[in-house]
Amino acid sequence: MEISPLEQALHAARALVLADLGSGEVAHADIVSLVEDSIVHRRWWVEQWPEGIDYVAGLVAQDVQDGLLERSGRWPLCPVCGSGEPHALDVEPELGPDPHWVCSEAGVVVAPVGSLGTIVR
Fold first, then answer.
1. In sequence order, what are the residues at sequence separation of 6 or more whose Cβ sits closer than 8 angstroms to the Cβ of residue 117?
2. How far, in Å, CA of 66 to CA of 60, rounded?
3. Which residues does 6 contact at the CB level (< 8 Å), separation at least 6?
């Protein structure tokens, strides 16, 4: 059985975002539900706009980030800036392939989406 490119992209996006959530020890059941809700929405979105398939990982990361902001606060917190007000990382590009977590305050790329656990703090 062959898995469609859409399903491959959705599975990859799920894995990347879950890896980032796990690295911050926030991959609780209710948070994982945010990921699954985003996957359902993004499946529909890519079915409507197939050219957007390469953007799914970044969009799922942003969806989960927005959901967490509403529920419990900013995520993921910036590991780069050691002083000042705690702030979340942003996903860049907002709509594009190869999404990264970026500290917009320091202007630096922190890690690719899915690789927050590899950051040495």
1. 19, 20, 22, 23
2. 10
3. 43, 46, 47, 50, 53
Any bridge partners for residue 111, and if so which? 101
The model's pLDDT over 30-73, given as tens digits with 9 standing for 90+, comes to: 889 999 999 999 999 999 999 999 999 999 999 999 999 988 88
Work out the number of other CB atoms within 10 angstroms of the CB of residue 97: 12
CA distances from 50 to 21, 42, 53 (A): 27, 11, 6
Tell me the C-alpha distance between 46 and 42, whole Å.
6
Neighbours of 21 (CB within 10 A): 23
User: What radius of gyration do the chain's Cα atoms show?
Assistant: 14
pTM of the model: 0.92
Instruction: Report DSSP letters for 63-84, one per residue.
Output: HHHHHHHHHT--SSBPSS--SS
